Amino acid sequence: MAQKSYRKSQLIAFNNVAAGHDGVLSDRSGAVVVKPCKQAEIDFYHSVAAEHPHFAMYIPTFICTHELNPAPDVAATLTPTAAANLPETPIAAPPAISQIPVVEKAWAPSNGGKITTDLAIVLENVAAPFKKPNILDVKLGARLWDDDAPPAKRAKLDKVAAETTSKPLGFRIAGMRTWQGSTTTSSSHTEGVANDGYKLYDKSYGRQFSAETIRQGFEDFFLVERDGGAKGPVRDVISRFAAHVEELHFVLEREESRMYSASLLFVYEGDPDALQAALDAENHLTDGVDGDETHEDSDDDDDDDDEKEMPAVQVLKLIDFAHARWTPGQGKDENLLHGLSSVMGILDGLMSPK
To answer: What does the pLDDT look like over 30-39, one tens digit per residue?
Structure first.
């Protein structure tokens, strides 16, 4: 199989980062995200693929590494296995890159700015399959600093945690963007909507909440009325997210690791019509599989089934591993698990009126 590579001329700036720092790039199709990082994050992705397969499904697909400032005509080369996961030709008539938002970042002592590095990781853009992706970045942990952080950095991050929901709940909303469209009637959500129909919430938004009011942030993300229970398709979306967070919690309870300042990335279809169509198509595919159980399928039918892809409804990924490692003999990551448990509680609570 032919190898694939990314050259500087193939990459463009990725400006729609809801939370994180500068320097994120993408290819012109929007299928991947190229994120500046340090070697430690690359090593972590390699270790997941080699030694922790049960955890791999909960993080973005790692495609390759990339040198940001290579010598002329030098580019990152993908392995044949990774290359197989990418289209052979660019996606026809791709949407403008500004219409394909993603939340990807890595904390470093640069106060959220561009980190100093020539290395980058190339990851799948998990928001690409959606028509109007709604995206939420939830930073996990009451402790946000790694063991090598200087005292001043520890004190600063501890202060942020104490003044936000990070300390009591083990998480806080780091940023989000929701597509409001042009027909939204809820006045609690429409203020501040940009011309593209999206409303952006920066890090200051998430820092205003207390443990008692944090539900409001998730209500804004899922466009649920204040203190009202979720209804319709979004209720199904929330239920799925809750189940996936519970699954991730189950997996990490059985791992020995430390993942400081990692984030949960929530993405779901924000266009109501597209969301309903995706759910209908998903049900149709499921019904078709169930209905074929009593019939003998031909090889051609099997091939057709293999080519069918489930429509994009929602996706949950754990991201940001600049300060992540496996720690045999040190026990499970209680700092991270605390945040996951709290998120599960909030999602469960949204299923019914307050």
So the answer is: 788 888 888 9
